[in-house]
Each structure stands twice: as structure tokens, then as C-alpha cells.
Amino acid sequence: MDKITLYPELVNYIFGYCSEFKTDNESKAEWHHFALEKSGNEKKEKFYTHFKERGLISFEPAVLDLLKDGFQTFKENVASRIYQEHKNDLKLNLCPKCFKIARTSLAKQCQFCFHSWHTKDD
Fold first, then answer.
1. CA atoms in the 13 A half-sphere facing the CB of 76
2. 67 contact partners, CB below 8 Å, separation of at least 6
3. Three-class DSSP category at 4
4. What is the pTM assigned to this prediction?
5. Is the pLDDT of residue 2 over 60?
6. SS3 of 33, please?
């Protein structure tokens, strides 16, 4: 598992289910993006103020710099860094047949080959 191509579904999985490996600035950047999306990017006053008061809107250059190339690139960079630095610690839910990533950490059916690894007791 040394050299792996981070395909889109794996990027989404690592970004979504391996958040314990995100840096403080990466977490702040994710919350910043979320807050701006929820406040409508037009900075709807009510939502923007709410998120700003809770510290979810960041004004830190290091945090904002992470998002400078867009959220998708940010996601890919975070997932790549996490994989490179923690590949032996990641609990990836891989299909036992094709070895691609499942949709979620609890899924028991492959989204690619549709192989199921449910037990009769489930």
C-alpha cells in the first residue's frame, strides 16, 4: 500500500472519515468554507454574524491560503497529506474483492463492484 492513486472516492473518504489527522489550520479552513457556504457567500447578515461570533469565519492568512485554489483542491491536498503521513494508521474500509474504498466507514457493499460482505447476523 505504498504507492496508491487517490481517486475521487478515496479523497472524499479520507477527508470525511479521517479528520483526526487534520491540522488545526485545515480544520479551521474547512469550517471557514462551511460557514461561508451556509451564509450564502453573499454574507447574509444573520448567518454570517452567527458564524463569525462562533469563530468559524477565519481571517488568518495561513488558513485562508489553504483555500486559495478552491475547496476541491484543498480537499485533495488534505487527503493526500493525510495519506502520505498516516497511511499505516488509516482505517480504510476497503472492499475485500476489488480493494477499492467503500462509500462510508460502516458500509458493507462496494460502490464499484457491488460485492457485499454482510454477515448473516447483520
1. 9
2. 29, 32, 33, 74
3. coil
4. 0.86
5. no
6. helix
